[in-house]
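User: I want to check something. If I give you two sequences, will you return the structure for each one separately, not as a complex?

Assistant: Yes, each is folded on its own. Here is the first sequence with its structure:
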Amino acid sequence: MISSVRGTVLSAVGGSVIIDVGGIGYAVQVTPEHSLALRVGDQALIHTSLIVREDSLSLFGFETAEQLHVFELLTGVTGVGPKSALGVLSVLGPGQIAAAVAAEDDKAFRAVSGIGPKTAKLIVLSLTGKLIVTAPVEQAVAIPATGDSVVVALVGLGWSEKIAVQAVSDVLSTHPDAEAAPVQTVLRLALAQLGPAQHSTSSRTAGARS
């Protein structure tokens, strides 16, 4: 098992890089974003997963151990091969994937080329309870830990931080018992309050900013 490679970048084109490790060039498939971040001649550490097939050995690489972990979870889902899993991580970061799973939002995965409706639902079902949203979010108002996690999830789904904080604050004030409820329950309440029309607007705004 090759869990990582460290060496000199010999080539970085498209979704493939070649790393020289002790005179041996390892071809590693990566996301386009990762490839663009690497420069020929630089030293690089890539976390890898070795996929063994009857007629091939393929290395898939990632910048962080967290991305590698999510990749391995995705490849464990029926209908999701390594290339499809890499495609998911090319579009969504680990935090966004965790947020989509927590919200049971299979639409986020259907937006990835090669992932159909059935597979998208299987991803959400299979990954439920296996991912934790950990990205920090700066808040304008103080809310409980449960609400904080929901804010992070909403931001990961494309809402602005201001709107997410306000939505969670409204839910907690409207439903006094929500503070002690599971994150997923509060997230559903917040999404129901925000509504699909506002979500679409927020996503377009986020896209325009990026």
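And separately, the second sequence with its own structure:
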Amino acid sequence: MSTENLFNTEALKKLKELATSIDFTMLATDLKHSPIDAIPMSTKKVDDAGNIWFLSGTDSDHNANIQKDPEAQLFYAKPSDMEFLSVYGSVSITKDRAILEDLYGKSDDAWFDGINDPNLTAIKFVPKTAQYWDSKSNKFVSLLKMAYSSVTGDETDLGETGSLKV
């Protein structure tokens, strides 16, 4: 696996590509306490500045954790495509109507009573650092490459890994 650390525009592009293609992430909050509090979240949007947006309930444990400590970690994983992304950053909560309308979709009705639900909030995740692993192939192709490498002793490009500085 080759290492490719990315910066600025290229890092932002890679972050957006992986976060949107994987979609679901584990949002970890209350990082200073063990065990950390982690909950699955669906990525609603990655904006042009690299901020990652989610919808959440005002009364949720993770919103309460964010109020105490704005540091958080995201863990994205798509094993079928051998894509992984870990992002550390800070989070804030907003009830800005324009943002909620931009992020809210019909599928969110499963969690909220529509766009006017008083419990509806948006979480803005601002990345500080990230680490990614991307095989550029699906799991089957990656396994074949690993098998080939183990039999022949030849190095095979299994993809790339690196840090993202946005």
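Because they were folded independently, the notes below concern the second chain alone. The helical segments are 8-22, 61-68, 97-103, 139-152. The first strand starts at residue 2 and ends at 3.
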